[in-house]
């Protein structure tokens, strides 16, 4: 079983390499793609909002399907949908039509919301005392995706005037990358959910009844994890998706300079993930939840004072590190509180709420950027992300019973 866990962990990490590489394309150009094909500058936040809303809507059904049918077939389906979405977006850019681009963004969002639940598979394969590390092993694949984005996409934009035609090939390449993910996940055997039941022993079988979602969200330890995960993810993705506009329009840098900044952000999200996982298992979930939010707040606040590409990259790097600490701690805590047949549902609900918040903040942040500048985005994001810290520290959960 140890060999199968090691192999599956590596393959799931490789799946997130492909997802991370494609998402960097979305982050870098989603704000401008719809603007270029429609000519309407006031909708710069609409592209990220479509992507994030679709990811939100897909998360809970995908989690339920994972609990019922296993992790592998659902993740594979996510990659297929993502490849189709990239292709439709490329078509929309080629014919300069906004509707296909919007549909494509929605499909790529569905793929992202589904594939990101691979972290549930990481939680399945490791016992509670090593669970944060197991999740971090899977998420570490996104670190290599941070290199994949600039390596693949930056040359496609370098030295070119940004117009709709210039976006066709990058989106087709994104679709091809997603197809690679289908091949990789097909080799994940046995399904991680089966490993989870094997680790729990014969007393818990796949036929054991799962608690309904309202009961799950009230379990001790779940509310604070949900709050930290939702706030950290919502702020992180909204700031990340608006970074392209900040760099190009507000700070007047070239379009290709967005990719090193987004690469630095994704590097921050995952560069220290293995260290973070071990740290969380050692210091506990609650301190880690709060620590991550504080690091994020410091990074977002400083965005209003620094405009250079290196400084912005450093702040986005810090934003990524803070998110990673909160995200892994929250995922581990929610996994601690659930059985294998409940885990996907709870994590999917978390992603639903988090992505809806991210989509809302992207729209609000886009309006704030256009009307009040970078300072409004920085201060607003800081207030939102720092607000839950005191409450989380106050609600220290008792040890969860789900893994007793």
As an assembly, this protein is: single chain
**Global mean pLDDT:** 85
Shape: globular
Number of strands: 0
| C-alpha Rg (nearest Å) | 20 Å
Helix/strand/pairing class, anyone? Answer: mainly alpha
Q: Uncertain regions: pLDDT < 50 for 5+ in a row?
A: 399-404
Question: How many helices?
Answer: 18
Kindly estimate the percentage of residues that lie in beta strands according to DSSP. Answer: under 5%
Q: How would you explain this protein's 3D organization?
A:
This protein is mainly alpha-helical and 404 residues long. It has a single domain (2-394), classed as Growth Hormone, Chain: A, CATH 1.20.1250. The protein has 18 helices and no strands. The two termini are 21 Å apart. Mean pLDDT is 85; it is low at 399-404.
Question: How are the SSEs placed, and which strands pair?
Answer:
Blueprint: H1 2-38, H2 46-69, H3 71-95, H4 98-115, H5 118-124, H6 131-139, H7 141-157, H8 168-185, H9 192-200, H10 213-218, H11 222-250, H12 258-270, H13 273-283, H14 285-301, H15 309-336, H16 340-372, H17 374-386, H18 389-394
Helix pairs in contact: 1-2, 1-3, 1-4, 1-6, 1-7, 1-8, 1-11, 1-12, 2-3, 2-4, 2-16, 3-4, 3-8, 5-6, 5-9, 6-13, 6-15, 7-12, 11-12, 11-14, 11-15, 11-16, 11-17, 12-15, 13-14, 13-15, 14-15, 14-17, 16-17
Descriptive tags:
single chain, about 400 residues, mainly alpha, Growth Hormone, Chain: A
